[in-house]
Structure formats: structure tokens, C-alpha cells
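note to self: dont lose this again. the chain is below, predicted strucutre after it. 297 aa total, dont forget to put it in the shared folder this time
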Amino acid sequence: MAVRRSDLYLPANNEHFIEKSMTLGADCITLDMEDSVPPAEKEHARELVKKYIPTLNQCGSEAWVRVNAWDTDLTLADLDAAVMEGLDGVTLPKCSGLADVRRLDDEITRLEKLRGLPVGKIKMAILIETALGVFSVDQAAGGSSRLVAIIFGAVDYTRDMRVTRTDKADEQVYARAKIGVAARTYGLVAEDAPFPNYADVQAFEDNCRSGAQLGFEGRQIINPKQIPVAHKVYSPAPERIEWAKEITEVFEKEGIAKGSASVGWKGSMIDIPVYRDGLNILARQAEIEAKEAQKAK
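---
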């Protein structure tokens, strides 16, 4: 499972922001060539992508780009600029279904072969931000072996649904839940939407926690101040890690070793599903520790 607790988005035409991003400790850095770049700056953004992608991930953060959507006729030029050694992945916005995913996979494959890159190394994420995208996400999620994440786009989704986006996000529950289920079905990370009200740290944390309960394991980040909060929420809490260590040790010694499928422990029952939950927590923590070790190099 990929570690994508924080996915820092920044305009690909802003060189200062790009250089600063490499010092911030995000799990992923995404150079955005889509919404944050005005039409007159698209070519400049591509030039900076070419300049920075070869070395961007040397800080330990993964190096990603968000290209423009297929209906803009800009996607191919964006991919031509971005697909190179050093690129970890491509995010496709406004994904409407399986055909969009397969088309992106095919084009990345073509460019990898053309440029002598290992085929399949560059990963993909899809942004689900329309009613059609949510409706079709269960098919899209299985559309490519390159996929590692499904990202929710709340602002465009609520606009498309003709409802008001709120920080509490009651109007987003169905979409978030469906994306969470689709992601887990295919072993992908469900990544939550940007939170525009970045000055309200508590509201951001509350929103992250509500998404985490629906299966989200990371977040699009639009302000560096959000990174520590995202890392806290989307990492196992210290008490959960201790619980996982205790119950797995007890179950292995008193259950597995003695041929039993359940063990009493501190007034509760540890059985195989509980044991597996503990193993998952410990595996997730190990992945996070490995990610942090990369950043520390």
C-alpha cells in the first residue's frame, strides 16, 4: 500500500513554490498543470515540469504531476512534457470512467517505450469530481495495474451536484463512502479532497477524521500548514500501535501456538479478524516509518 498521507499540490508554473516544496516533508508532491495554471502559463508550466521532475523526488517525497483532463485537448502535451525518469506518477482529473483510465495507461505506456523507460513503473491516480465519476468509480478503479490512488474532488463534485460544499461535508458522505469502498476493493489509497479553509486547523482535522472513518488514508494538501495534521490523522495513533503489538503477541502465543482460534484478553476476545486488524496496523506503521526514513536521507 502506498503512503500518501499528504499530497501537496502546487502550481507547476511557480518555480519558488516548487523549490520550497522539497523542504516540507510531504509524502507526495504534485506539480499541477491543470486548475492552478492559467491558459497563458500552460507551456511555462510544462517547461518547469521538465526541469524539476528529474530531481524532485530526491527529497524523499514522490514526484507527481496532474495533467489537464482529456476534454481540454491539453493532456497529450502535458504527458509529453512529464513522462521521464524521476516521475513517480500522473494524476488524471475529471475521470469519468474506465475508458479515461485505459486511455491514460496506453499513452503512458507509449511514451515509456519511446523513451526507453521501464514499462509500468510510472503510477497513476484518478480524480473523481463529478456525478458521473462517482457513479462509475467502481469500474474505473479496476482499469489499470498502474493505479495506486483514487482522489476525491469535493469542490467540483458539489458544483456538479448543485449543492453547497460545507466544511462538515454531510453533502459528500455518499461520494466519499463509495470512493473509499472502490479503493479498498482494488487495494488502492482513497485520498480525500482539498480543504479550502486551511486557516481553520480544527475544522480541517475534524474533516480528515470523518473521511478516515470512511476509508480515506491521505489528503490533497493546498497549504503546508496542513501537512502535520494530515500525517497525524492518517497514521496509526500511538495507543493503536501499542494495542496492535499486544494483541498480536498474545494471539500468537496463546492462540496460534496452542491451536486456538480465539483468546481472552483484558476482558475482550481476540479472534482471527481482530488479529488481522492488529497486523494491518503494524504493517501500515512500518510503511510509514520506511517513508519517513526516505525523507531523512
